[in-house]
Design goal:
Blueprint lengths: L1 H21 L9 H13 L16 H15 L4 H12 L14 H22 L8 H14 L1
Helix pairs in contact: 2-3
Keywords: Cytochrome c-type biogenesis, Heme, Iron, Membrane, Metal-binding, Signal, Transmembrane, Transmembrane helix
InterPro entries: C-type_cytochrome_biogenesis, CcmH/CycL/Ccl2/NrfF_N, CcmH/CycL/NrfF/Ccl2_sf
GO molecular function: metal ion binding
């Protein structure tokens, strides 16, 4: 029984050792500035396959390819705008979380504001007082009731 428990402990120790090796950095950098630029870009660029995941969070194969390309571009000395421009040229504006304002995306910016204006207009219109026309007999009865309450 002791031999079995020692074997289990040995296997668990080996597993922990291999796990610590697996946490080594995949993308080595020359300095901390490049590392922070890479991390920032991998959070700002979207995976083309995963609808709403950035490159840092995605496990898709294309996200890994894009991360490798971002790594290469950062090591080559490209700045943030150059890397984003490169990615947008190849994958379109979708790859960047902040779409530009142009003729195709203007509705993304205007529709929420238009919806708010229309909702406020509908609220104001529904709150308007309804005017009721009364004949002379009904008006006299209301006046009598008001006089009596005084």
């Amino acid at each position: 029984m002791k031999a079995m428990s020692r074997l289990v402990c040995l296997l668990l120790g080996l597993q922990l050792a291999f796990t610590s090796v697996a946490t080594e950095e995949k993308y080595p950098f020359e300095n901390a500035q490049q590392r922070s630029l890479f991390m920032e870009l991998s959070k700002e660029l979207r995976c083309p396959k995963c609808q709403n995941q950035n490159l840092a969070d995605s496990d898709a194969m294309i996200a890994a390819d894009l991360k490798r390309k971002v790594h290469e571009l950062v090591l080559a000395g490209n700045d943030k705008d150059q890397v984003i421009s490169y990615m947008k040229q190849r994958y379109g504006d979708f790859v960047y979380y902040q779409p530009p304002v142009n003729s195709m995306t203007i509705w993304l910016w205007l529709l929420p504001a238009l919806f708010i204006v229309l909702a406020l207009a509908a609220l104001v219109m529904s709150r308007k007082k309804v005017s009721v026309s009364l004949d002379a007999q009904q008006q006299q009865k209301i006046n009598e009731l008001l006089e009596r309450d005084k």
